[in-house]
Amino acid sequence: MTELIQIIVNGMANGALYALIALGLTLIYGVMNLSNFAQGEFAMIGAFGTYYFMQMHMNYLMAMILSLIVAGLIGFVIHILAFHPLRKSEPLNMMLSSLGVSVLLVNLSQYLFSPNPKVVSNSFSEDSIQAFGVFLSQQRILIVIVSLILCGFTYWLLERSKFGRSVRAASLDPDTATLYGIPTNRIAFITFVFGVALTGIAGGLTAPIYNVYPTMGISLTLKAFVVVVLGGMGNIPGAIMGGFIVGLIESFSAGYVSTAFQDVIVFSALFLVLIIKPEGILSKVQGEKV
Amino acid sequence: MLKINQVVSGYGDIKVLKGISLHVNEGEIVGILGANGVGKTTLLKTISNLIKTREGTITYLGQEIQNSSPHKLISMGIAHVPQGRHIFSKMSVIENLQISMDHANKKSNGKDRLSYVFDLFPRLKERLKQLGGTLSGGEQQMLAIARALVAGPKLILLDEPSMGLAPLVVQSMFETIQQIAKDGTTILLVEQNAVAALEIVQRLYVMDMGRTVYESQQITNQELDKIKEVYLGMSVS
Amino acid sequence: MKRFKKMIFMMVSLLSILTVLLAGCSAPKGASESDSKKDSSGPLKVGLVTQLSGGGALYGNLMKQGAQLAVDQINEKGGVDGRKLKLLAEDDQANPSESVKVTQRMVSDENIDAWIGTLKSSDTITDIGITAKKDIPSFVPVAVADNVTDSGLNNVYRNVAKNSMQITEMVNYILKKQPHKKMAIIAENTDYGRNIVKIFSEQFEKGGRKITNKELYNVGQKDFNNQLTKIKASKPDSVLIAGLVAEGALIAKQAKQLGINQQLYSFGGFMGKQPMELGGSAVNNLIHTDYFVPTAKDEKTQSFVNDFNEKYGQIPDSYYSAATYDAVYLYADAVKKAGTSDPEKVNKVLHELKNEHTVMGDITFDKNGQAATRVWISQIQDGKQVGIYHAE
C-alpha cells in the first residue's frame, strides 16, 4: 500500500514538472507553429542562471526570478535572430533552426561553464517530508506547487484574459486574427518569451535535485515533446494533463513492470496515441491545427 | 470613401492584380463579380494589407493606407469578412465577438453594437457559449459578419458570403446585408454567385485577369443581361 | 492529418539526429605538423590519445598531467640511453571516429614509438587495432572494460585492474568484512552496468547472500525515484550503485530523500573529489572500489604524490594521473632494458616483467597484457576518500 501511494506521489511530482515544460513548448507551437527543439536548453539556461546568481550570494528565490528574466531575454534575442525571419516560411525551416539553436546553446554553455555538473543547494533541497512511510522531498513539493500555480495562471491568462484571447485567436488563425486587430508578430514574440521563461523556471526548480550541466535540457525536450504530442500539439489543458499522465505511466511501469522498460512503455503509449488518436488524447474538435 | 488606383500585387513571382482601379462611395453596396481565380479575393486581401501592394495606391477616407499595418485597419473602420468565414473555431461565439470588440474603433459603444448584432442575428444570441466550429454553415457566416459589425466599421469587405450555403439561407443573408448597408455601413461585396449579388448591389465591377474589365454606374435590366452573358458566361433566356 | 503525421515523423527523426549530433559536435582539429621518418637518435615519441575537450576533459587532462610528469622526470635524468622522451598529447573528444583518426595520424605521420590511451574502452579497442599493425607498445592505463585485453594482441598492456577484478574484490570484501545479506542493485543500462549486475549477483549469491533488486536506469537520467521506490519496497539492507558519479551522486541524494538510509556501495566511478561535490552529505559512508589511494603507505606512491603536488599544486586524488604516469615509466624502463626502441624487443621485455613495482601496484602482465594491479576498498568519510581495505 505504502509503495502504491509512493508510486502515485512520484508520478505526480514528476508529472508536474513535465507539465510545466510541455506548457511552454505547446504554447509556442500553438502560436508560432514552431516545434522548438531548443526548449530544454532554456531550462538549462534557467538552471545555470540560478546556480550563478546563488554563487553571488543571492537567495534561491531571487536567483530563480532573475534567471527566468535572463532566460526570457535570451529567448527574445533568439527569437529575433533565429525564428522571426523564418516566420513566413515552411514550419520545417523553423524546426531546423531550433535544432541549430539547441546545438549552439549546448556547445556555448559547455565552452563557457565547462561540461561538469554543478550543484545547487538551497534550504529545502535536502530534506523530505514523510507521512505514513511515504516520502517526498521539500524541493519536489515546491516544484509541484510552483508548477500547479504556473499552469493555473497560464490557463487563466489564456482562457479568461483579453491577452489570452488574442493569443488563442492568433494561434487558431493568424491571418483572420490580424484582420481583427491582433498584432500577430508581437503576440508570437511575447508568447515565445513567455514560453521559454516558463521553461527557465522549470530549470531553476530542478537545479537542486538534478544538478546543472550543459546537456541537461536534451532529455527534457524529449520528454516535453512526448507530453505535448500525447496531449495534442498546441493544446494547453492537454499539455498539463499529458504531463501528469506521462509521469504516472513512468512510475507505474517502473513499479509494476520493470525499470528497464519504463521509457519503452512511455514511447509505446506515445505511438499508440499517434496511431489511434493522432490529434492528442484531449482533443475534442477533429481536424488539424496547421 | 475607398479609392484603388493602379494597384499591382500578388504572391511571390506571380502578379495577380495587374493595375486595378476602382472606387467605393460612402453608403454604397458595390459588387465585384468575376469567375474563379481572377483575383477577387486577392483584391480584398490587398486592401487589408495581408498582401503587400507593390505598385499603386489605396486611399481610404483621404488617407493612403497601402503601407499601414494590417492589424491597424480594424480600428480605422475597415472590417474584412474573409472567404470561407474563418471564424475562430475553437472559441465560443461570444469570444469571437469579443476579439473584434477588443480592437475596435474605441469611440463607438460596444454594448449597443452587440445588441444591434443580436437584433440582426437572433440565432447567435442563443448560441453564445457554443464553440464556433460547432455552428452550421449559415450560422458561421452570421458570426463572421457579426464579428465584423461589432467593431463598428465604416466599410465592410465581404468575400463570398454565399459560399456553401443553401439558396434559402443565401437569400436571407443577402437581405441582411442590404439591411446593414441601409443602417449606414458601406459594403464592398465580392461574389461568384452573380444572380444573388445583382439583386442587392448598387454598382458593380466585373474583374478578369487581375483588372476590372467592366464598370456599371447604374444597373438596368438590359445591362444586366449583357453582363451575365458577356462577362459571367451565363446564358440569358 | 497527413501533414500532422509527417510533422511528427520529422520530429522523431530530428530528435534522433540531435542525439547523434550531440554525441560529437565539435569540429575536428587540424593535423599537427609532422616530422616523419623514424630515427634512432631523435626523441622517443609517446603518443597520448584522450579526451581533452568536452565532457571528459577533466579526466583526459589528469592523464596528460601524469604522463607529462613522468616524461619530465625521465628527461631531467638524461632520458633513456641518451634519448629524450617527447609526449604528443591529442584530443579524441571521446568520439570513436575521432579517436581512430588521431591514432592513425600519430602512427603514420608522427611515427610514435609508444601509444597510451584512452578514456573509453570502446575507443581503446579500435585504436589498439591500429597500433597493433606496427606492433607499437600500447598502454591502457584507464579504460577498464574486460574485453580491451581479450583481443589477443601482443602489443597491449593494461596496468590497471580490469572491471571484473574490481567487482570480485568488492564481493570478497563484503563477504569477508560486512554483515549485509540483502542487497539491491541499481545499474546503468549499458554493458558496464549490466556486466556488474551479472558478475556481482553470481558471486554474491554464491557467497550465500541475496540480491533483492536489479533495477536499471539510462545514462543521462536525472530522476531515480521510480527505481528507488521499488528498491525501498523490498527492504534491502544495502544498495549497490553500478554506475558513474554523475548519476550515482543523484541516486545517493534521492535515496536519502526517499528515506533509504542503508549502506551504499559502488565502484571506481566514485573515486576522487567529484562524488562529494555532487552528492554532498548523501554520499557520506559510501564504500567503493578504488585503484589509487594517495595516502597509501607506499614509498612509490608518496614520491609520486609529492612530485605531482609540487608540479601542479594539487594532490592527485584518483588513478588517472598515477596510472598514466606508470605507463610512461613502464615503457621507458622497457626500452632501457631492451637497449633499443625496436618494438619487437620492447614488447618482449614488457611481457617478461615480474612484479615490477609501480604506483598502481606490482605489475606482471599476463599473455594478454593484463596486470592485476591493486584494488582498494575506499570509503567516503566526512568529505574525504579514505582507503579502508585492500586484499594482500
Automatic annotation (TrEMBL), chain A:
Transmembrane segments: 12-31, 61-82, 94-113, 141-158, 187-213, 225-249, 255-276
GO terms for biological process, alphabetical: amino acid transport
Name of this chain's protein: Branched-chain amino acid ABC transporter permease
Organism, as annotated: Terrilactibacillus tamarindi
Keywords: Amino-acid transport, Cell membrane, Membrane, Transmembrane, Transmembrane helix, Transport
GO MF term list: transmembrane transporter activity
GO CC terms, sorted: plasma membrane
Family (UniProt): Belongs to the binding-protein-dependent transport system permease family. LivHM subfamily.
Automatic annotation (TrEMBL), chain B:
Coiled-coil residue windows: none
Name recorded for this polypeptide: ATP-binding cassette domain-containing protein
Superkingdom in the source lineage: Bacteria
Gene3D superfamilies cross-referenced by the UniProt entry: P-loop containing nucleotide triphosphate hydrolases
PROSITE patterns: ABC_TRANSPORTER_1, ABC_TRANSPORTER_2
Organism annotation: Terrilactibacillus tamarindi
The entry's keywords: Amino-acid transport, ATP-binding, Nucleotide-binding, Transport
PANTHER family listed in its UniProt record: HIGH-AFFINITY BRANCHED-CHAIN AMINO ACID TRANSPORT ATP-BINDING PROTEIN LIVF (PTHR43820)
